[in-house]
Amino acid sequence: MDPVLLVASIMVSATPILLAALGEMVVEKAGVLNLGVEGMMITGAVVGFAAAVSTGSPVVGFLAAALASAVLSLSFGFLTQVLLSNQVATGLGLTLVGLGLSALVGAGFEGVRAPGMGKLWIPGLAEIPVIGPMFFRHDFMVYVSLLLVAGVWAFLKYTRAGLILRAVGEDHESAHALGYKVVRVRLAAIFFGGACAGLGGAYVSLVRVPQWTEGMTAGAGWIALAIVVFASWRPLGVLIGAYLFGGVTVLQLNLQAAGAKVPVELLSMSPYLITILVLVIISARGVHGAPGSLGRSFHASA
């Protein structure tokens, strides 16, 4: 296995998971548990693909995917934050809606090839031997995902809005007593999380596998949820977790291509088995860093 190609492939493989997990981390930081990440990702995948094919522009596809998934996420936000429905049940319903909607919209796009998206060579860095091909010759969404990690970290750590969001997630009743608009903050976080999930889904259909196939996210949304826990709700941890999962995924694909004497089914299962194993170990040691109000509904009269 060529190490240069391996590292470059890991970055591509990790990007959709990173985008979705980062968005979900912000949602959970606000005290909301949205299990509909898979549904939002697959919606982003089909809408992004349809928009890109129709306009010939991958950029339009990504923007359409982000908007569609963000709007879909607001349905979850309205049900859970305004009507106070159960967050777990509503999130699962959102996933089912996304899967069904994507199958309907995508029926006319099967077998169609997505418009190509060129690489963004960073001047002065892309020409560096070994390091250049590894890190500085990717499509623009790889760099957008890394910038989002840095941006979310800075937002949560250094801005007043980030402090308010964390306060709402830790104790929504105290935040409300201080005059903060809990529902508005949570809806904004849910909208951002939906947009990130949509970008992650569009990346799968426009870059990783540049065509539409029903169910093509293949559980990536559930992995994103697991990575948030693995990361202890920290942006850097999300980055590490996404790249570790991407590394395992690329490694098992390379082992299959190399004809490793291991059942293909076991290799295909390995990224998910390792994720489950890590979560079991974390649970046994105790989960740290979870927002205090995570999954709890806010009653304005409280």
TrEMBL record:
Main location: membrane
Designated name of the protein: ABC transporter permease
Lineage, highest ranks first: Bacteria, Pseudomonadati, Pseudomonadota, Alphaproteobacteria, Rhodobacterales
Transmembrane regions: 6-23, 35-53, 59-79, 91-109, 140-156, 187-206, 269-287
Organism: Alloyangia mangrovi
Cellular component annotations (GO), alphabetically ordered: plasma membrane
PANTHER family from the UniProt entry: ABC TRANSPORTER PERMEASE PROTEIN, SUGAR ABC TRANSPORTER INTEGRAL MEMBRANE PROTEIN-RELATED
GO MF, one example: transmembrane transporter activity
InterPro entries assigned to the protein according to its UniProt record, in alphabetical order: ABC_transp_permease
Topology class, membrane: Multi-pass membrane protein
Pfam family, one: BPD_transp_2
Keywords of the record: Cell membrane, Membrane, Transmembrane, Transmembrane helix
Localization, UniProt: Cell membrane
Keyword field contains Transmembrane helix: yes
